[in-house]
Amino acid sequence: MEDVLLRDGRALKHVVVREYVRGLVAGNAPGSPAPSERELVHRFGVARMTVRQALDALVTEGLLERIPGRGTFVARPRRVATPIIGYTEEMARRGLLAESVTLLARREQAGPGVARALNLTEGDAVIHWRRVRRGDGAVVCLEDNYLNEVLLPGFLQTGMPTSLYDALDDRGLRPTWAEDSISADTVGDEEAALLEVDPGTVVLRHSRRGLVDDKIVNVSRSVYRADRFTLWIQLGHDA
Amino acid sequence: MEDVLLRDGRALKHVVVREYVRGLVAGNAPGSPAPSERELVHRFGVARMTVRQALDALVTEGLLERIPGRGTFVARPRRVATPIIGYTEEMARRGLLAESVTLLARREQAGPGVARALNLTEGDAVIHWRRVRRGDGAVVCLEDNYLNEVLLPGFLQTGMPTSLYDALDDRGLRPTWAEDSISADTVGDEEAALLEVDPGTVVLRHSRRGLVDDKIVNVSRSVYRADRFTLWIQLGHDA
DNA sequence: TAGTGGTCTAGACCACTAT
DNA sequence: TAGTGGTCTAGACCACTAG
């Protein structure tokens, strides 16, 4: 929560102006005008620099744009890259119902690969959560998640959620940074049985390391049926 | 290029201060101090608001951070998502030498799929560029690029570059936005021969639509040998 | 206590846009 | 010509940090 009050309870003027303008233009079409700086000066009885400080913040966050000689206007929303989402949201984007069956949800000792990925020592405790995931009823994916238990005390006891990312969000641990690797492969017998395909069928493998700040929250390894899943990614941003 | 001069040739003071500070701290370790605002006021003989305008710009771009009561310091560089890069840079990231053999580079009439992807009408002229791409000598990928000819007049005549993205960059058309789709598949006879694998071998398919602003610059369809290529992607940003 | 950044004032002149 | 944003001044008081 942002500090909007001084010690004596007075509101910061530039914040008052900023939020007034934000409320005014909220939902307005791109290109619609915001109040002019001098109009805000008059309305709030503040100096122009104070108004500019308020508008600067809204320009920086991309809500407004200034056009010299013309005025200040609602900016066109900028495109931003694909957010970091999990299976549940991936399915929602496709308009499919995400369902899961938990095959495993327990405390384990980290093996060498998982330990390295989570930046732990081999044998440290991790939470291993394995699910078969469906979209509109059809088997789509087999997902293994490994969570750093130190960051998630009591996670196994609180009842497993549908969306891991929602649960992480509740604890302020939703990843803001992800390192993904994506490859094509064929499945072995065990994975084939769970995905309801023949051994040797082509699959898409997707591994992810999820971080918030410098904390590695989870590592996931997903195997998608190639006939039922294509990964979509949007990269970059507007100028 | 930014305007740094007024009509009469005088430099904008906040730009002078900003670039002075940028030069001072360039390459300095995160946490090292920048000059204080009042020190800059004294050095340049300007008002403090002018100095603040200069520093605000550097804070917004992530170079500096302010700590109230302490001073202004070089900020820790923020992580940003994977930039939009092509094969040449993908290989460079792996420390591999990117080489290509052009199989096709010609003007064609857009088929239905390409026309839709480039937002053209079927039969419109497109540039089709097909290459077999190698990394450290080994065949890695078969890439078909379709370019909007209207945006790239004379492109075929200027001699084909190694890196498409470098060539686009030279024309101010390097994509800043990309829509990618990634799937696993098996190859047919023609692709198999070019990739030097058996038909039916598993491959990674990567399609991309590259845009700058609202202009669709190119559409690419790449087929990677699954045994020689894993896609790496980093998503998100620091708080 | 001295120094820092945060907030704020009450003006000023400029270039540019639209009428 | 009137209105807009861009730049700039010369101060002021505040809260906070560090020695």
Automatic annotation (TrEMBL), chains A, B:
<dbReference type="InterPro" id="IPR036390">
    <property type="entry name" value="WH_DNA-bd_sf"/>
</dbReference>
<dbReference type="InterPro" id="IPR036388">
    <property type="entry name" value="WH-like_DNA-bd_sf"/>
</dbReference>
<dbReference type="Pfam" id="PF00392">
    <property type="entry name" value="GntR"/>
</dbReference>
<keyword id="KW-0238">DNA-binding</keyword>
<dbReference type="InterPro" id="IPR028978">
    <property type="entry name" value="Chorismate_lyase_/UTRA_dom_sf"/>
</dbReference>
<feature type="domain" description="HTH gntR-type">
    <location>
        <begin position="10"/>
        <end position="77"/>
    </location>
</feature>
<keyword id="KW-0805">Transcription regulation</keyword>
<dbReference type="InterPro" id="IPR011663">
    <property type="entry name" value="UTRA"/>
</dbReference>
<dbReference type="InterPro" id="IPR050679">
    <property type="entry name" value="Bact_HTH_transcr_reg"/>
</dbReference>
<protein>
    <submittedName>
        <fullName>GntR family transcriptional regulator</fullName>
    </submittedName>
</protein>
<keyword id="KW-0804">Transcription</keyword>
<dbReference type="InterPro" id="IPR000524">
    <property type="entry name" value="Tscrpt_reg_HTH_GntR"/>
</dbReference>
<dbReference type="Pfam" id="PF07702">
    <property type="entry name" value="UTRA"/>
</dbReference>
